[in-house]
Write a structure and sequence with these properties.
The chain is globular, with a radius of gyration of 24 Å. It has 16 helices and 14 strands. 41% of the residues lie in helices and 14% in strands. Helix 10 (228-238) runs parallel beside helix 12.
């Protein structure tokens, strides 16, 4: 095979990860990587997408990950290029989106600590608060190992951005290709999530089956794990209402008979009256009213079962009665099987009609404003007409600010991963780059 440049090794690792797009802006220290993408990317389906600003590059990578479930990749040159990625990476961090952030760095001999070079920056320190893992690539031979570690960290456990700082002398350095092991993902990371302990799953199943008013509340973790089929199947089997978090819209179609719009009067009533709540991949943060009364039941009376892959978020804002540590999709599948061993399908519960009627009355006030022909146009008129124009499975992108409030009232979401909104950060400026990233991820 002969000698191979570090940048070539990096790009071959990205191709092995089935990366389709790298978003960013060219810079001097990035040139070896860009040239490697040009030489190897075409036949492998890897493209460099040039943006007008690095923040937009990070948002595009974020949107790509939200739509596909695979890590998005963005890139910035040393110093200002890396710094400009930060706002976009933060939005992905806040919503637990898998992303691989690549930054160019000056030569190893004049970095960490820097010696007065132009555009010098401690990029490891810069990204530390908004990445779950970060590393310098300071030797040619470690490129495959560290790329593997980056992707493994991005998608394992609670997904989040990770960061690789790439010294330019390492990228142009050469070595013997035969000495490297560029393994496929199945050789160095798990391809399915862990399942919670069997005895705890059985206990959760009994609690749900014996409940008079069970409720399922999926958060963003249900979307990240692809657990929408399991959420729907369990809800239908138990006839349990579903109230998603606002960042998890689409886990169940919002016109499903068991779905109650998050934050609506029907949902709030169901949450307050439930005797057992199954929280799936969520933290009960501020847009969930911290899981506290009067929007939820009293902790002493309302039982809470929490499924999450991250132990640190269990009981974060409300005490739990049973914690199931595991992947949402895999654990829900086991829970469904356990429930089916205990009971036959449960018919619709009497309270559901009341919750739906309350929701319909709540929505009717917004529908009335949306029907108005007065000028200037009411924001709800825009939301109603735009939603009516596009098909059910269209991907909706909502920027930060009050736009998301109006969209929440009348922009119904019917498919998983079809509603893109920087929910936890409320980041402004996401709209256009989110839309571009989503279009590249799902062109049809």
């Amino acid at each position: 095979m002969g000698a191979i440049m570090g940048a070539d090794v990096l790009v071959k690792c990205l191709i092995q990860e089935n990366v389709r797009f790298v978003f960013g802006i060219p810079g001097g220290q990035l040139c070896p990587i860009l040239d490697a993408i040009r030489r190897f990317g075409g036949d492998a389906g890897l493209q460099f997408i040039m943006t007008r600003h690095e923040q937009a590059a990070a948002h595009m990578a974020d949107a790509y990950a939200r739509v596909t479930g695979e890590p998005g990749v963005c890139m910035g040159t040393v110093g200002p290029g890396a710094a400009d990625l930060v706002p976009g990476v933060y939005a992905a961090w806040a919503d637990s989106i898998p992303m691989v952030v690549l930054t160019a760095q000056n030569q190893t001999w004049k970095s960490y600590p820097e010696r007065g070079s132009m555009q010098s920056l401690d990029q490891i320190g810069l990204f530390q608060p908004i990445t779950k893992w970060s590393a310098r690539v300071a030797h040619w031979k470690r490129i495959p190992e560290l790329v593997h570690a980056a992707f493994r960290a991005a998608v394992s456990g609670r997904p989040r951005p990770v960061h690789l700082d790439l010294h330019v002398d390492v990228m142009v350095g050469t070595g013997d290709e035969e000495s490297l092991d560029i393994a496929p993902p199945t050789r160095y990371r798990a391809d399915r999530g862990p399942v919670a302990q069997a005895e705890l799953i059985e206990q959760a199943a009994r609690m749900l089956v014996e409940a008079e008013r069970p409720l399922i509340h999926p958060g963003g973790g249900a979307l990240r794990s692809g657990a929408w089929d399991e959420v729907r199947e369990l809800a239908e089997y138990l006839s349990a209402p579903v109230t998603t978090s606002q960042g998890a819209c689409g886990v169940i179609p919002e016109d499903h008979p068991l779905c109650l719009i998050p934050g609506g009067f029907g949902a709030l009533g169901a949450q307050a009256m439930a005797d057992v709540v199954l929280l799936v991949g969520g933290r009960l943060g501020d847009v969930d009213f911290w899981g506290q009364p009067p929007y939820w039941g009293e902790p002493d009376a309302q039982k809470l079962i929490q499924i999450d892959i991250e132990p640190q978020v269990v009981g974060l804002n409300r005490p739990v009665d049973l914690a199931l540590i595991g992947d949402a999709k895999a654990t829900l599948r086991a829970l469904i099987d356990a429930v089916k061993r205990l009971t036959k399908p449960i018919p619709e519960r009497p309270d559901m009609a009341e919750y739906r009627a309350t929701q319909d009355a709540w929505l009717s006030q917004f529908a009335a404003d949306a029907a108005s022909d007065k000028t200037p146009i009411h924001p709800l008129r825009l939301m109603r007409d735009v939603r009516a124009f596009f098909p059910r499975d269209a991907i909706t992108v909502v920027d930060g600010g009050n736009t998301n409030v109006w969209a929440h009232y009348l922009n119904r979401v019917y498919a998983p991963r079809s509603f893109l909104w920087a929910a936890d950060s409320g980041q402004l400026g996401t709209g256009l780059p989110f839309a571009i990233g989503a279009k590249l991820a799902a062109p049809d």
